[in-house]
Structures are given as C-alpha cells and as structure tokens.
From TrEMBL:
PANTHER family: HEAT-SHOCK PROTEIN 20 FAMILY MEMBER (PTHR11527). This is HSP20 family protein. It comes from the Bacteria. Pfam families: HSP20. InterPro entries: A-crystallin/Hsp20_dom (IPR002068), HSP20-like_chaperone (IPR008978), Small_HSP (IPR031107). Belongs to the small heat shock protein (HSP20) family. Residues 1-105 form the SHSP domain.
Length: 113
C-alpha cells in the first residue's frame, strides 16, 4: 500500500495507492491516534484458471499511521477515486499557532525612587 503524505497550511494530506480495490472493501478505524487502513483486492479470475502471470497481489492489506497529538483525528475526511484513497487530516485547533496579547505599557505606573 504505497503512500504519500504532506502538509499544506493547517491540513495534512495522505494518499494511499489501492488500484483495483472495491471502495466498499476499504475500512478506516481510528483508536488512540492510530489510523488503521484495511482493504481487500480480489482476484480478477476464478479458481479454475491457469494463470500465466500474477504480479498484482490479491488479498487483505492493512497499514497503520500514527497521528500526532497535533492532528484532529475526529475530523478526518476520506475519499476514493481512480484507485487512490485520499485522506485530509486537519491540525487540531489547540496546536495551531496563535498570537498572544501583551498587556502593560501605558497601564504601568512609574515609581519615583
């Protein structure tokens, strides 16, 4: 299950190559920041065939991705098109950079010494 992963702004993207897989056989689970992808590719031919070449593996495949605490595992979006499973994983709100206001300056009173 070859994979590409990258970050654009506040979103991580993951693409997994699953050519020939029926989308209904794909199963995604998240437990304790571990995303598990399972899929099944069935043989295109029957059991009574004499195979000449078999280069595309068949069977059940799985892969686990460890999601850091900075990612929002509750808001993962998944789509499957042209043999590619695409996942969008947003950065958690609490992990995004933010500005912190600084008070003081004109509110301070100087003491004579």
């Amino acid at each position: 299950m070859p994979m590409d992963a990258w970050r654009e702004g506040d979103t991580f993207f993951v693409e997994l190559g699953l050519p020939g897989v029926n989308p209904e056989s794909i199963d995604l689970d998240v437990e304790r920041n571990v995303l598990t992808v399972k899929a099944e590719r069935k043989q295109a031919y029957g059991d009574n065939c004499d195979t000449v070449i078999t280069e595309r593996p068949a069977g059940t495949f799985s892969r686990q991705l460890f999601l850091g605490d900075t990612l929002d595992a509750e808001r993962i979006d998944a789509s499957y098109e042209a043999g590619v499973l695409k996942l969008r994983v947003p950065v958690a709100e609490q992990a995004k950079p933010r500005k912190i206001a600084i008070s003081g300056g004109s509110d301070r009173k100087e003491l004579d010494g």
